[in-house]
Amino acid sequence: MNQDERFLREAIRLAREGMNSGQGGPFGAVVVKDGEIIGSGPNRVTSTNDPTAHAEVVAIRDACEHLGTFQLEACTLYASCEPCPMCLGAIYWARPSRVVYAARHADAAEAGFDDSFIYEEIVKPHEHRRIPMQQMLADEAKTVFKEWIVKGSKIPY
Ligand SMILES: [Zn+2]
């Protein structure tokens, strides 16, 4: 069994374990660096009342805490299912070098986890989105960006 299959099966095992132990939905993820699991997580949405506690986000937070950094350089994220748009965003911010997933998003949709509406929302004009988005006070908010640009000590990311 190759490494990818081994780690992906661990993500699937976490998905089942998390579901059966009442932690949340049937999703699991692990983050691997140098052949070692450095972060993992099942979905914990319902047990922690955290709508962002998808397995990938839980695993990314765990891995970053373990590494003491906010970047997952040279890491691979294994997910039991294709990441949703939120997790995809988190993955791009965390910057692992690779993602390997098992079930496809259509498979999750069949189980009642359909995230395709989010992809549809992203490309819609703001005024046509299900959740209205209103823009205001840009000039006031931009002053913080100007302060950031000239700030002496900062950690860019
Ligand atoms: Zn997700």
TrEMBL record:
Residues 2-120 form the CMP/dCMP-type deaminase domain. Pfam families: dCMP_cyt_deam_1. Keywords: Metal-binding, Zinc. InterPro entries: APOBEC/CMP_deaminase_Zn-bd (IPR016192), CMP_dCMP_dom (IPR002125), Cytidine_deaminase-like (IPR016193). This is Guanine deaminase. The gene is guaD.
